[in-house]
Each structure stands twice: as structure tokens, then as C-alpha cells.
Amino acid sequence: MIEPSRWRKTTVVALFMALGLFSTTLIPKALVQSASAAPGGREQVLSVFSPAMAKSIPVWVLRAADPGRPVVYLLNGVDGGDSGGSWAGRSDVASFFADKDVTVVVPLAGRSSYYTDWIADDPILGRNKWATFLTRELSAFIDSTFNTNGRSAIAGLSMSATSVLNLAIEQPGRYQAVGSFSGCARTSDPMAQALVYSQVATFGGNAANMWGPPGAPGWADHDPTLHADRLRGTALYITAGNGLPGQHEALNDPSINWNVGALLDRETVGGVLESVVSQCTGQLVDRLRSLGIPAAVTLRPAGTHSWPYWQDDLHNFWPIAAGAIGA
């Protein structure tokens, strides 16, 4: 395949930057380097060492009230959460799960990484072995430290909406439920690769170090639409808007708080982005249906690429996830 044109990549990069998003084993004692706890003891930020990446990863955790409970993993968008765009900071995740007896885990890193194992170190983004960290290192630590029951759900938005599907495909049975919100799952055609290149470039990375140059086998290997049959048996919730202004595009919406500039930005940049991912989401849904794989799907008649809709998506995903993980 031909590398995406420079103008296309530049345009999409500008859009994403403007939006500002986008088996258990014994755990070495050194894996957890430090922890800070909020009053009350259930909410804390851990520094978890990843041997695969040779660095510590900050992880926000809301601990279940009781032992032997399942886990919900939430992945952030293109900034990985270390620039403030995290589930913990941009949604009501703490209050929403306060009365739900599950452990909630939000890694606060991974910008432009697609939360995947890269084939080469990147000069800017460094070593990325996120699939290994999430499915082996972090999950083993969480299960052991918080005495979980080994059952878990995972959800992601924008960039990580693709990641959560790939993680479930690569590790069948690791997650009993997957929520993919406003993502572009297809990665193996030229337009989709342009989108991926743009997201990786947002923080200076080169996607050729992730899955190889355009057309390399790694792109098809990480295309959930091509491997959707491996999602069979997993509870799925797939969502997207269509880019038109919706219920949260209003000056009195709490996420806008009468900020005219923020509203215009959301309606323009967020609208364009969501119109793109809407097409990708439709492709994924069509693929699942052609395979006879059940999935709960919400294709909103309006809505932009923005946090209030993803918070709504998480609320709607919860009953599906709870049923799958026995929460």
C-alpha cells in the first residue's frame, strides 16, 4: 500500500491536536514503587513498574469495597491521560462506581501508543509494550494485589477504542466484556492508516515503529474488523455519534459551562472527528453482523467526539459489563 499523503496526515493531525484527545503470576515486590491514597482509602494512584518497558506507569485505581470482586479497565485517548485527558479527570468515573463493588483501573500514560506492542523503539515515544503491560504485567498485579476474582471488562475511547478490541482479540477470555466508544477499528486500508499515522504523530511518534510501514503485515494483524471472529463470546458495546450537534453541544452543558469558544471547538473539530469515526464504526458493526456475532450498538443521530458522550457510553456499558463479569 502507498503511504498516506502528507496533506491528509497533516490535516487529521491538526484536528486531533486541536481537540486535545485523542493467568496470574507472582508479582515482584519492586513492581509497585509508590502509592498515594485519597481520603477514604478506596481511590489511589499507584506507580507500577513495567519490566517490558523498563519504566514506571502511573495507574489510577478505585478499589472494590470487598475482596474477590471483578475489575473494569478504562483506557484513555490519544494523550494517554498524562495531559489531563483521562477517565479519572474528565468523567464521573469515581462517583459513578462508588456504589458498585468492582475495582476500576485507569492507566495514566500511553500517549499516541495505541496501547499495543511496538515492533521498534521510537525516538520520541520510546519503548511501547502496552499489550504486554496491560494483559500480563498490570492485570497480574491487580488480580494479586486486590484479590480479584479474575474476571474483567475493558473499555476505551477514540484511539483506545481500537486498542480494547485488539487486546481482547489477542488474549481471548482475558476480558469478558469490551466497550469501544467512538473508535476507528479498521487499520489496514490507506485511509484508516492515515488516521492512525495522525494519532501517533500527535505526540511526535512514527507509526512505522509501531506496526511497520503502510502495508506491512502488522497493520492487518491489528485490524479488528479482519479478526472480529475472535470476539465471539465476548459481550460487546460499540458506539459512535455522527458529528452533528447533540444534547451536550449547549452553552449550559456542564462540560461547556458557557464557554463559547469551547462550544465552537466541539461543534467543528469534534464534529468532523466523530463523522469520520462514525463511518469506521459502521464498518465494524457490519462485519460483526455478517459473522453473526452479537453486539449492543448505539449509533447516535447526533453527537461529537467529546467526553460527555463517552461518559454516557460508560454508563450504558456498565449493565452489559456487569452482567458479563458477575458484578
UniProtKB/TrEMBL annotation:
What GO molecular functions are on record for this protein?
acyltransferase activity, transferring groups other than amino-acyl groups
The record ties this protein, via InterPro entries, to:
AB_hydrolase_fold, Esterase-like, Mycobacterial_A85_antigen
Gene3D superfamilies according to UniProt: alpha/beta hydrolase
**Domain of life (superkingdom):** Bacteria
**Name of the protein in question:** Esterase family protein
